[in-house]
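Action item from last meeting closed. Structure (144 res):
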């Protein structure tokens, strides 16, 4: 059984309340449930974690790499556009990573168009809502 990390960055704990017209009304807890159920149907498990703190996200990536997880589903939130440190942690982890965004970041404000993570991710999914996480899980299930 493969375990895949499911890491969500800042403000994603506010899903369901924060700008539902952009991010939908589904909570992060509900999304984690959907992804967990899908992982089980694929014969895998997920380890989910969310933090609003950059260092905590980096520590979790290091921990999962040391534990030998099979891959990483990553929604870096606002750190997508600003965190070289988070990017470096993903590279150093060696984890096959899929970057996921609920909204289409390329159809939003200009500052959201640049991702520091996309260039080192195996795949990028944006604009599919929470089903993007399921697509990422399926990709990593087959690929990792």
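Sequence:
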């Amino acid at each position: 059984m493969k375990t895949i990390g499911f890491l969500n960055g800042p403000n994603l704990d506010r899903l369901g309340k924060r700008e539902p017209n952009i991010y939908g009304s589904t909570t992060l807890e509900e999304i984690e449930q959907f992804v967990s159920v899908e992982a089980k149907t694929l014969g895998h498990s997920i380890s989910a974690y969310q933090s609003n703190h950059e260092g905590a996200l980096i520590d979790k990536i290091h921990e999962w790499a040391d534990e030998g997880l099979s891959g990483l589903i990553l929604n870096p939130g606002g750190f997508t556009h600003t965190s070289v440190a988070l990017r470096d942690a993903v590279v150093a982890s060696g984890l096959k990573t899929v970057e996921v965004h609920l909204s289409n970041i390329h159809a939003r404000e200009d500052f959201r168009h640049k991702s520091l993570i996309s260039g080192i991710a195996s795949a990028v999914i944006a604009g599919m809502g929470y089903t993007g996480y399921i697509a990422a899980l399926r990709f990593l299930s087959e690929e990792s």
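Note appended to the action item: The chain has a mean pLDDT of 93.
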